[in-house]
Write a structure and sequence with these properties.
Layout (H helix, E strand, L loop, with lengths): L1 H43 L6 H32 L8 E3 L2 H14 L5 E8 L4 E3 L1 H17 L5 E9 L3 E8 L6 H6 L21 H11 L3 E6 L5 E8 L6
Parallel strand pairs: 2-4
Antiparallel strand pairs: 1-3, 4-5, 5-7, 6-7
The structure holds adenosine-5'-diphosphate.
């Protein structure tokens, strides 16, 4: 009986590993193909008399390189966190800088005509946090808001203080999730089976990393979503104590 359980677990792990390799290759290939295509266009000399189109081409290459960087960052963070090797550099300060940094980076990653991105970052409470970690969690939520929304994306980032905690919200008008799907999305390698998801690439690690990082900050992360009705992800972090 035990042997059967082990064999089942081994087969599941092998399947997960092979899906992971296929999915990550697919995810890396998407920006890489765009970079190759735009670089080839520049190399062909077709745009040599068109400064505007040349600049557009270069912007796209940099944008796609930024996506590649975000994917690689996610894989490395996953590796470090699963081996308990993730060093966080905690400081007591407001999270506004980390969130603003993520919003700016995200803005540089997507064509401006595809999104309406608004942010209200009104937070002065100090939070014990690693700015790089919070920046990457928020960037990941923004990337998901973009990936899982068809058509024109309306994305909102709100940061607000209450008496003893800070809430960071990332809200989209995307494909949303059923209550059942929403229950599993923070598990590693889990992707909701959504027909609207189309060919969106991913490996299902971003949210489990986000949860791990938020846990390390003694915070919580949750989602409020409706199928076809958009999603709102909320991170709640405790304010730093008075002794800070
Ligand atoms: P990935 O995007 O690589 O699949 P994540 O861990 O970031 O991995 O997300 C897990 C799953 O949660 C996604 O595959 C998707 O099904 C669902 N999901 C995440 N963010 C959203 C969102 N903003 N709207 C709808 N579904 C989402």
């Amino acid at each position: 009986m035990l042997a059967l359980v082990f064999a089942g677990r081994k087969a599941r792990l092998a399947r997960q590993q092979s899906d992971y390799i296929a999915n990550i290759s697919h995810e890396l290939r998407t920006p890489l193909s765009a970079i190759t295509l735009y670089a080839q266009t520049l190399q062909s000399g077709k745009l040599k008399d068109n400064d505007e189109k040349t600049a557009e081409c270069i912007t796209t290459i940099l944008r796609e390189a930024s996506w590649l960087d975000a994917i690689i960052d996610r894989v490395l963070t996953w590796r470090a966190s699963s081996k308990d090797l993730l060093d966080l550099h905690m400081k007591d300060e407001p999270v506004a800088g980390a969130v603003q940094g993520a919003v700016e980076r995200f803005r540089s990653m997507v064509p401006p005509d595809e999104i309406t991105l608004s942010s209200s970052i009104k937070s002065e409470l100090k939070v014990r946090h690693d700015a790089k970690a919070i920046n990457s969690v928020v960037l990941n939520l923004l990337i998901n808001a973009y990936k899982y929304t068809d058509g024109h994306r309306e994305i909102e980032v709100n940061v607000s203080d209450s008496s003893d905690c800070v809430t960071i919200e990332v809200k989209d008008n995307g494909i949303g999730l059923t209550a059942l799907q929403a229950k599993s999305i923070f598990l590693p390698f889990h992707r909701a089976e959504n027909p609207e998801r189309g060919g969106t690439t991913g490996v299902g690690l971003g949210l489990s990393i986000a949860r791990h990082l938020v846990d390390r900050h003694q915070g919580t992360i949750s989602v409020d979503s409706r199928h076809s009705g958009g999603s709102s992800f909320k991170i709640v972090l405790p304010a730093a104590g008075d002794d800070s």
